[in-house]
């Protein structure tokens, strides 16, 4: 074992699990959610098993709110040892399942499920990480990462929130890993690229646990020594601030860097007025074309 892998090091893993009922794999077969959840819990326990100082948090992300599934606020559940299973693993599994049931029960019945609030759940994860770092005993080096497990498609509606979270994570040296269960997620892939995390679209849900253990279990320091899926090409298109649509070419405010799909003489974000000098030329001089 290398010297830098001292026993005082710990690794904090925050898993954001998308529990939105309108994910395609759940609407096609609701039983699949249980399977994916079991794989996620087995993966979470594997992380705890690697080192006794490792820490775990699980956040359930729904369409009406996001909530911590583990650790539960307040007093932890009272668990007894089952068949020689380590109590902590039983506690993790029982707490996650119980709190997930509560989260699903609390969803508004008359509302149509909307988009999963992933950006908000990520922000909760970052807050948790910064609190754990603050409370850690002196001398302990804590590496932190967030893993998103989702079958939702990404829309540009949360574009600004995503970018704020990604750049905060980058500054805090938190890796963002994304495990997509269904579609290719270009915005979240940008987050992986910005923070140095890994992005993987799982080819089949049956092998989910295998993919989680292979790709996402190793810590950032161990990943360099392993053969893991490559980055691929990252789609770095930005979404316009007016319609939240992904653009290849747009107008950028020279003051606040807001992106717009159409020219407007006043920036709607910072209210800067641009002098156009007579009738508006076809190519505005004050604006730069962004590729
Ligand atoms: Zn627009
Ligand atoms: Zn502006």
From TrEMBL:
Highest taxon in the source lineage: Eukaryota
Similarity annotation: Belongs to the TFB4 family.
Gene Ontology MF: a single term: zinc ion binding
One Gene Ontology term from the biological process aspect of the record: nucleotide-excision repair
GO cellular component: transcription factor TFIIH core complex; transcription factor TFIIH holo complex
One Pfam family this sequence matches: Tfb4
Signal peptide feature range: none
Species this protein is from: Galleria mellonella (Greater wax moth)
Assembly with partners or alone: Part of a TFIID-containing RNA polymerase II pre-initiation complex that is composed of TBP and at least GTF2A1, GTF2A2, GTF2E1, GTF2E2, GTF2F1, GTF2H2, GTF2H3, GTF2H4, GTF2H5, GTF2B, TCEA1, ERCC2, ERCC3, TAF1, TAF2, TAF3, TAF4, TAF5, TAF6, TAF7, TAF8, TAF9, TAF10, TAF11, TAF12 and TAF13. Component of the 7-subunit TFIIH core complex composed of XPB/ERCC3, XPD/ERCC2, GTF2H1, GTF2H2, GTF2H3, GTF2H4 and GTF2H5, which is active in NER.
Predominant cellular place of this UniProt entry's protein: nucleus
Gene3D superfamilies associated with the record: von Willebrand factor, type A domain (3.40.50.410)
Keyword annotations of the record: DNA damage, DNA repair, Metal-binding, Nucleus, Transcription, Transcription regulation, Zinc, Zinc-finger
Protein's name according to its UniProt entry: General transcription factor IIH subunit 3
Stated role: Component of the general transcription and DNA repair factor IIH (TFIIH) core complex, which is involved in general and transcription-coupled nucleotide excision repair (NER) of damaged DNA and, when complexed to CAK, in RNA transcription by RNA polymerase II. In NER, TFIIH acts by opening DNA around the lesion to allow the excision of the damaged oligonucleotide and its replacement by a new DNA fragment. In transcription, TFIIH has an essential role in transcription initiation.
Localisation: Nucleus
Record-linked PANTHER family: GENERAL TRANSCRIPTION FACTOR IIH SUBUNIT 3, TRANSCRIPTION INITIATION FACTOR IIH TFIIH , POLYPEPTIDE 3-RELATED
Transmembrane intervals: none
């Amino acid at each position: 074992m290398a010297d830098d892998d001292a026993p005082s090091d710990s690794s904090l893993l925050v898993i954001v699990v998308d529990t939105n009922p309108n994910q395609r794999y759940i609407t096609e077969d609701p039983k699949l959610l249980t399977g994916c959840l079991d794989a996620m819990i087995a993966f979470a326990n594997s992380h705890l098993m690697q080192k006794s100082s490792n820490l775990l948090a699980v956040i359930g992300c729904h369409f009406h709110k996001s909530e911590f599934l583990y650790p539960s606020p307040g007093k932890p559940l009272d668990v007894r040892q089952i068949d020689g299973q380590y109590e902590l693993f039983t506690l993790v599994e029982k707490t996650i399942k119980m709190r997930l049931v509560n989260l699903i029960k609390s969803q508004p019945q008359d509302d149509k499920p909307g988009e999963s609030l992933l950006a908000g759940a990520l922000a909760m994860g970052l807050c948790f990480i910064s609190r754990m770092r603050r409370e850690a005993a002196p001398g302990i080096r804590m590496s932190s990462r967030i893993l998103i497990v989702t079958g939702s498609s990404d829309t540009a509606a949360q574009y600004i929130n995503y970018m704020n979270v990604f750049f905060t994570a980058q500054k805090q040296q938190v890796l963002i890993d994304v495990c997509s269960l269904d579609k290719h997620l270009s915005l979240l892939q940008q987050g992986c690229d910005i923070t140095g995390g890994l992005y993987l679209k799982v080819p089949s849900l049956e092998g989910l646990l295998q993919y989680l253990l292979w790709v996402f279990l190793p810590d950032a320091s161990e990943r360099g020594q392993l053969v893991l899926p490559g980055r691929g090409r990252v789609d770095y298109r930005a979404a316009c601030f007016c319609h939240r649509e992904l653009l290849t070419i747009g107008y950028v405010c020279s003051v606040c860097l807001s992106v717009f799909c159409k020219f407007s003489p006043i920036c709607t974000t910072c209210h800067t007025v641009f002098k156009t000098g007579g009738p508006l030329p076809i190519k505005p001089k004050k604006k730069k074309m962004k590729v």
